[in-house]
């Protein structure tokens, strides 16, 4: 008998019928002898409905009162799911974030979990109850309701699993696991049975948006085995765990990509220490996030400096950079908003050479020009012309034989 | 400067536009220098929407989880109203029932308020904030969310006013006060400037449903001046207070009526002690509420016994009574579901004789036959044939000169 925390997202509990399906799934698990803590989101559409109401009353709804408003979404779901379970003869009890006491800091709308009082939950579990907890919410030390920000329900589930030392935290979603790449681009994409936290973090931040990054970080920190499964189909999903040194690691686990990037370059900047912060400081001051950064020494004691930003920020970043160029006496500024990024990710590349050359060779054979390269310990990213994105992903998927079961 | 508790019902906060109007009204009061605690209901329709959801999942939604569900309705309103006030530049802060700590017993769906911790509210008022509290809800000593039952928001407002020793508790509703009778029946019906708690209790329980009886009882018990006003029109409404012995009391304050009654009679019951409980016991056992009761001694040591019930309960009451008649050896059972009750109410009748005869004379002149009579210290009720109801109300309204301003 094990303790499992399950999280069902908004789509999984989007209608009364779906809530009934979730209740049945929970009962199946319970009949296998598991203790269950269930974390739920607001019914799909509900959070947006509430935000729309708020927007009609406030220019920029935020802060304490927005959390009071939004937290009702999950509160409705916990009550309905508990009722459904009880109607099916299963003892169940619901908890809001405040009732559990999921203590957070007081950063309304994006609070961080500080502590969880698992005392009452344990007591209910001991009494054979299914415990249903509202995701996404908590309260600060003065009892003010807080929310964890979008996707916070995943974080709630992982945090509860960590606090209760659960055997597994299962995240039910509308996909049935983590794939080697996006199946819409590569039809041979394969669901991974397992992946490490590190790989998942690289995959998630690179655009394979299955799980909230924060919840993966949290699971990694507290070593909570995390499983992504579908609410709608059967199957074991993908298990995300710490790296197991005894395991033979796949070289490459997956290929992530991102088409929302734009590239800016400032050429012929007189080179002296601190030049990078002079270029990026004004960008950061406008809250524009920079992704890849590359600096090359040019000729005549000047340097060329390239970075990428989200495509939405391209125009304002370009304006800022033109200003900076004038101040620094740079030769030229140029940019390209038709680029895309492809990354191969895998902990196996730590101990294997030649990944980069396999990658570059494969792209070269299809005449795909590499505009930028950036590497980390378990990832190699390249920036290419946007129009070659799908071709590049398919080529790399094949080059690393990701379609083959291992 | 005084402390006022204002309560706005579901219709008053039924849309975003109406919430804005309520915010403006609150600001007007605040500009007059008052400290304000605002109690709000769920937006109209919301509670029914939630109950509908629950009914799709549970045969008979009730208990703890129903309260978790329903309490979200008011929680949405407190957040939206606070946002509206802040958007208009007024500091405001919202409280759920649990956050105030409105402590109740644990009778879910119909909890009773046990204690109110007014500490935080006082602190916020001192800081110049408008305090917005969710009506209808509280929590038990273990932090379980409870609700006070339909109309409980009025009770919340009165209880807060009592706890804070407020100068007045204002109940905003969709009528502009308490009338001498229903203006739809008597076009000359006049809004009363004031009425006593006792009179209001008689009027409310007799069908003039402006305020929840419970809230009037509560206000009476703690001597909280209660004012009923309209959210939509200007005017001072009706003040409901304790009886002021120095005041010249009107003879009659109003005429209440009720057309939902039915009458049952059991004739020729062998008379001996305890016969009333033998007749009414089986009725009460089926949770049928009995209103008027009359017993007359008949001939030959038998008695005739008549009582009224809600019309919806007529058929089941009749079945029970037929059973009882057989057991007791009664002669006959008959009933009438086409009756109506009219009551004249006024504390003035305590010190004035002749009210009853004025009432009976007026009805007699219109050839309205009186079927039953029942009296209390401040009320005389008659049961008549339903078809004479409107005529009877108009006749009595005129007989007691209620259309005249005093």
Features:
homodimer, globular, Carbamate kinase, 406 residues, 12 helices
Characterization of this structure:
The structure is a homodimer of 406-residue chains. Chain A is α/β, with parallel strands linked by helices and 406 residues long. Chain A has a domain at 3-174: Carbamate kinase. Chain A is built from twelve helices and 20 strands. In chain A, the strands form five sheets. Chain A has an eight-stranded mixed β-sheet, sandwiched between helices. A four-stranded antiparallel β-sheet of chain A has the order 13-18-20-19, sandwiched between helices. In chain A, strands 15-16-14-17 form a four-stranded antiparallel β-sheet, with helices on one face. In chain A, β11 and β12 form a beta hairpin. Chain A is globular, with a radius of gyration of 24 Å. Chains A and B meet through α1, α2, α3 and β3 of A and α1, α2 and α3 of B.
* Strand order in the largest sheet of chain A: 3-6-2-1-9-11-12-10
CATH class of the domain at 3-174 in chain A: Alpha Beta
What structural class do helix, strand and pairing data of chain A support?
Answer: alpha/beta
End-to-end separation of chain A in angstroms reads 30 Å
Strand content of chain A: 25-35%
Helix and strand layout, with pairings?
2 copies of one chain form a homodimer.
Chain A: E1 3-8, H1 16-31, E2 35-40, H2 46-55, H3 63-87, E3 92-95, H4 97-100, E4 102-104, E5 113-116, H5 119-126, E6 130-134, E7 137-139, E8 145-147, H6 152-163, E9 168-173, E10 194-196, H7 197-205, H8 213-222, E11 226-230, E12 238-241, E13 254-258, E14 261-270, H9 275-285, E15 290-297, E16 302-310, H10 314-328, E17 332-336, E18 339-345, H11 355-365, E19 370-376, E20 379-385, H12 389-399
Helix pairs in contact in A: 1-3, 2-3, 6-8, 7-8, 9-10, 11-12
